[in-house]
Amino acid sequence: QVQLVESGGGLVQAGGSLKLSCAASGSDVSFALMGWFRQAPGKQREFVASITRGGTSNYADSVKARFTISRDNAKNAISLQMNSLKPEDTAVYYCSVLYLGYWGQGTQVTVSS
Q1: pLDDT one-digit tens code per residue, 47-83
Q2: I need a surface site. Which of 24, 55, 57, 73 has the fewest CB within 10 A?
Q3: Does residue 111 contact residue 14 with C-beta atoms inside 8 Å?
């Protein structure tokens, strides 16, 4: 049974930084594509960033140049470094193994103005 556990959310002022982490357990192989999504109140879940096993990353336009995704294949873990945070980044952030349908429980990120 694959489980994804996120950590690192919290409350931060606009312009601040947070780092989210996600650890996957229950698999002996590293997943091909992992990423982060977020869902703000009253909005649909949206893509934030993804990274392949080989390290190729992709970002939503809204977070480019502010967020950086990274991964540790040996630990089946990914991280999301979020800088220059804005109030509109407030959401529940979810870790995911794309195309396999695995999701974490989510971690709240709140950015105050």
Answers
A1: 999 999 999 999 999 999 999 999 999 989 999 999 9
A2: 55
A3: yes
